[in-house]
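Researcher: Here's the sequence for the chain we discussed earlier.
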Amino acid sequence: MLQLYKNIKSRRIELNMTQSDLASKMGYADKSMIAKIEKGVIDLPQSKIIAFAKVLNTAPGILMGLDGTSVDQSSLSEGIKIKIYGRVAAGIPLEAIEDVIDEEEIPEELARTGEFFGLRISGDSMEPDIHNGDTVIVKRQNDAESDEIVIALVNGNDGVCKRLKKYADSIALISLNPNYEPMYFSQEEIEEKPVKIIGKVVELRRKF
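Model: Thanks. This is the structure I predict for it:
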């Protein structure tokens, strides 16, 4: 996690922000907290990493140095805007959906890896990790690995955000909230209902 704190400092300097400026934007009383964070003295929860990324106009993954990526000039290129939908419906291509409620920017290097859209989450089935009103950034694809978070269309209904679990001859779409029962589908049900994966969640964005 040490790379995270180095990248926060590096990005702050790139933006010509003082520690006091960043503290103010993050809601801290003074710069002492930022100084401690940049030294790696304080561990940041995921929610704070997302908040820092938002204030520093970058992606959480870049701040965390995923895949060895640190914040450098090449990763600070202008973002690409994607549409945020209030819902995605079965049988309607994304391009034809009129329920566009917002736009978000994703890093250009991420945009180059595929096609992306955003979905505003409704409900509490993915609590405690994903809250009602959160926005998930989704890479369009028709399959995913077991245990990845996906957007799926089931039986002609609107898209749902669930954890995918694959078995030898079936799949399950699982809510993170234990109050919701998993949805199991045999291979026959996957084809008949149908059950279609339309994307994999690659990032969570939350307003504070």
